[in-house]
């Protein structure tokens, strides 16, 4: 046991140590070599050390350096060292974090982490929450509470009776809602195509004057942090209108919810605390390992009613909080451990520094690129930058060349008809020197 874990630690250390000097994108040869893994299932057992060695030699070179300092794709940070270490320890514990009576340590830690999160994000103190696999499932989970609540208000029990014959729910989102939010709504039987999409402005913010009349039962889905621009919907006026009509307001804050923990960005999310439910990712801006998202519901009872189960063989009756009462899964890993470790280690000040540094670095990217004559397509309010290097074809060719060059990795997008490169700054590991080195590479390649 000791030898293989020690070997894994050495290999992981060597891998992480090499991230600063290797190209961010894996070499095509390393990706092609993955074919060597395509062998029949071994008929006999073998030395586990051999298995680990193959994993490292064949797969490590074929990974994208997402844990490194110059990966700027998809708004996903790298994992903080303390969270990787906590993840290893939690893997050694091998806890099934479903029920308090069976896994008191992991369950207790999650309760502490949730209390800290609710305080940090300024959510109502009685908010209920669950640790899920990411924002897609966090949206799904919180919206299950929404579905339950708005239907219960008109006398329908959706958990018992399903949606057949239920009063129709009006579901409203912005035109720039993340596609996974639509998927979550679809998985809840609310239909991807029947959603009412509200027009947005040039940054992707919902226009309050375009909000249709809401009649209960209704759910309004807002967004904290557009995946392209980083923009926030104007929460105060929208939530006021929605609540006056008895609608439930949900906010997808996959990365933008963390702005609440950054004094310099907090104003962007003013009024967010008035909503009824929220979803976020910890594997994005809190920089913990995948997979880690959190669903919050102001009405903890509604979330529990949508998610809890009982079974004669399970000790579900408990004076304590059972983690699985608040998540779609029964069995799952104790992913709250890494959230706890990140919060405990960073503290409020450390997290604010990380978030504000990334915002400042995004502004520096925008300034450096616009100074060189390239067009920035968004107002850089958070950690997202959209840059066009010319027309669509030229922008795409610069992105491809930059990915091949290897200093950094950024992806492409089309923002309201214009092709752009997305720069998402969300990693604890990104220093100001990394930003300057990346800017140099961008300007060299684009030039
Ligand atoms: C606003 C928003 N919502 C939802 C998601 C989906 O998150 P996940 O991939 O963690 O499920 C993302 C991912 O980038 C996002 O930006």
Q: Tell me, what's the shape?
A: globular
User: What is the CA-CA span between the terminal residues?
Assistant: 53 Å
Which spans of ≥5 residues are poorly predicted at pLDDT below 50?
none
Helix/strand-derived category reads alpha/beta
Give the number of DSSP strands.
11
> Largest sheet, if any?
7 strands, mixed
Secondary structure: helix percent: 25-40%
Q: Secondary-structure element sequence?
A: HHHHHEHHEHEEHEEEHHEEHEEH
Strand content: 5-15%
DSSP helical segment count = 13
> Averaged pLDDT, please?
97
- Molecules bound to protein: pyridoxal-5'-phosphate
Strand order of the largest sheet: 1-7-6-5-4-2-3
What Rg is obtained from the alpha carbons, in whole angstroms? 23 Å
Concise description?
With 447 residues, this protein is of the alpha/beta class.
Q: How would you characterize the overall build of this protein?
A:
Helices cover 40% and strands 12% of the residues. The chain has 13 helices and eleven strands. The chain binds pyridoxal-5'-phosphate (PLP). Pyridoxal-5'-phosphate (PLP) is lined by residues 74-75, 134-136, 178, 180-181, 223, 225, 227, 252, 254-255, 281, 293.
